[in-house]
Amino acid sequence: MAKIQELQKAQLFQHLEAIQLNGVTKIININHDMKLIKRITSWLSSVLMLFLVTYWYTDYHLDTAIDISVLFTGEIWIIYGAISIYEQLKAVKFQFKYIPRKSWFIFIITHIIIWPIFYLLFTEKEFMIAYLFPGIMLPLFLIIDIIAIIGRKIFN
Asked: What is the pLDDT of residues 28-43, one digit of tens each?
């Protein structure tokens, strides 16, 4: 009964998340540093969409439009999977056993299925962009997160 009440409380507050491991439910408080990361990600997806629209207008080939759409969609899925795993790992202090199987499943699917599609559809230059973009963004998010934590400790 108490676990059900804790789960209901977790659903009421957006900053709480319930993680279930082997039948045991643990409620964690998600750190508010990830709000900045989520804002950057939404801004970044808007910029990528603007790039996509611009690219369609400058080059009217249907094949190119399809390729860039696949690239855009794949980038969003890969970044979403990596950020959600990072957010959950940070919330449980990087204890991998507390991450739900669904999150790992999404992460693995995006990295095993989408990357071969990139490799088969794109030229070497486009594939390198698709490969380097998440590889550059995720360490950048980690650095921003560390700076936010240090700044909060210094100024509070």
From this structure: 555 555 555 566 666 6
